[in-house]
C-alpha cells in the first residue's frame, strides 16, 4: 500500500516530454531526483507503446541500473553528453544484477524491450529534445 502511494506521488511529480530518437518519437517521463531515479519503473505492470522513462543527470557519470521489482521487459540506451546513444542493453524483469555504462553519460532511456531494435536505433543514433 505504501509503495503504491509513493509510486503514484512520484508519477504525478514527473514531467513528460517527447524526444526524437533516430527520428522516431517517444514520450518519456523525465526523472532527475535521486528518489525518482531510485523508484524508476519499479512496480509498474506495463509501459505504453512509444513511451519510456528518461533518467537525467546534471553531470556525465558512469550509470548503473538494475531491474529489482520491475516486471516489464525493458531495453536501455545510455546517452553520452552530446546526445548520442553510446550503448544499448536488453534488461530482464526482476534481475538484480547491474548493467553499467562503459563511459560517462548524461542520460539513460528505458523503453519496452525491442523498441530500439524495431526502429534500427544503434550506437551513434542522435536523440533530440533532451534539454
Please characterize this protein's 3D structure.
With 131 residues, this protein is α+β, with helices and mostly antiparallel strands. Helices cover 17% and strands 40% of the residues. It is built from three helices and nine strands; from the N terminus they run H-E-E-H-E-E-E-E-E-E-H-E. It has helices at residues 2-13, 34-39, 115-118; strands at 15-21, 24-31, 51-61, 64-65, 74-79, 85-91, 99-100, 105-112, 127-128. The chain has a seven-stranded mixed sheet with strand order 6-5-8-3-2-1-9. A two-stranded antiparallel sheet has the order 4-7. The longest helix is centred in the first third of the chain and has 12 residues, at 2-13. The radius of gyration is 14 Å and the shape is globular. The mean pLDDT is 92.
Strand order of the largest sheet: 6-5-8-3-2-1-9
Query: How many strand elements?
Result: 9
The arrangement of helices and strands along the chain is: HEEHEEEEEEHE
| Structural class assignment | alpha+beta
Task: Based on Cα principal axes, name the global outline.
Answer: globular
Please describe the topology of this protein.
Elements lengths: L1 H12 L1 E7 L2 E8 L2 H6 L11 E11 L2 E2 L8 E6 L5 E7 L7 E2 L4 E8 L2 H4 L8 E2 L3
Write out key terms for the chains shown.
alpha+beta, seven-stranded mixed beta sheet, two-stranded antiparallel sheet, 3 helices, 9 strands, globular
What can be said about this structure in brief?
With 131 residues, the protein is α+β, with helices and mostly antiparallel strands.
Amino acid at each position: 500500500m505504501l509503495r503504491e502511494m509513493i509510486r503514484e506521488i512520484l508519477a504525478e511529480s514527473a514531467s513528460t516530454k517527447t524526444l526524437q530518437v533516430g527520428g522516431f518519437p517517444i514520450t518519456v517521463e523525465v526523472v532527475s531526483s535521486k528518489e525518482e531515479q531510485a523508484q524508476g519503473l519499479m512496480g509498474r505492470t506495463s509501459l505504453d507503446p512509444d513511451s519510456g522513462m528518461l533518467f537525467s543527470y546534471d553531470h556525465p557519470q558512469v550509470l548503473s541500473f538494475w531491474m529489482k521489482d520491475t516486471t516489464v521487459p525493458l531495453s536501455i540506451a545510455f546517452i553520452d553528453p552530446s546526445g548520442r546513444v553510446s550503448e544499448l542493453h536488453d534488461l530482464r524483469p526482476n534481475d538484480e544484477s547491474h548493467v553499467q555504462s562503459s563511459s560517462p553519460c548524461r542520460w539513460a532511456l528505458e523503453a519496452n524491450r525491442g523498441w530500439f531494435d524495431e526502429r534500427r536505433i544503434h550506437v551513434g543514433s542522435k536523440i533530440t529534445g533532451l534539454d
